[in-house]
Design brief:
The protein is of the alpha+beta class and about 180 residues long. The chain is built from 8 helices and 4 strands; from the N terminus they run ααααααβαβββα. It has a 4-stranded mixed sheet. The protein starts with a helix and ends with a helix.
């Protein structure tokens, strides 16, 4: 039975996280993993190519070698093991799963604030602080998306949670109340 990429990634990332944590190397390891993810994101076909059995092993080795050369210690061993087990197409998901654990440990939340007009830096800071208090996060990484159709207010989305304080939604609720 073949395992899917998410299951594989969860297993690898859990083992890696526990190992790096026991070695007090979580931060350094995470930095290296983010660099690896960037390489794969900048070269979307890399994972597929590195798992392609039709490509000669020495050619695949040439392609993976820069990743191995750019990493050290535990992360180097991870890349080599993932390569050896022909699972390089799961590398981005491994890093994503590791980051989910890392963010949970550091109480970091990623959110998007949708507003009718761009927010100033001070408004973003205030929204970030308020949202952090509401969700119990130490850090909120907040991006701002502009959508004039919401008329005013703000909609904050994060990990399946939506806080909708938009004027558009308030008008729709009032309309439903008046009609219902």
């Amino acid at each position: 039975m073949s395992l899917d990429k998410v299951t594989i990634a969860k297993r690898y990332s859990k083992a890696l996280f526990e190992l790096l944590d026991s070695q007090n190397q979580l931060d350094d390891g995470f930095q290296e993993l983010k660099q690896i993810r960037t390489v794969f994101q900048d070269n979307p076909q890399l994972g597929t190519v590195l798992t392609d059995k039709s490509l000669a092993p020495n050619e695949r080795q040439k392609l993976v070698q820069p990743l191995l050369d750019a990493t050290s210690g535990t992360i180097h061993n991870l890349v080599q093991m993932v390569y050896d087990y022909n699972r390089m197409d799961a590398m981005v998901e491994i890093v994503n799963q590791f980051q989910a654990r890392y963010d949970m440990l550091h109480q970091t939340v990623y959110a998007e604030a949708t507003t009718a007009v761009p927010l100033s830096d001070s408004e973003l800071d205030a929204l970030r602080d308020g949202y952090a208090g509401r969700v119990g996060a130490k850090t909120v990484v907040l991006s701002n998306r502009v959508d004039p159709s919401i008329i005013g207010g703000v909609v904050v989305q994060s990990d399946g949670t939506i806080l909708d304080g938009s004027i558009k939604t308030k008008i729709n609720r009032l309309r439903q109340t008046l009609l219902g």
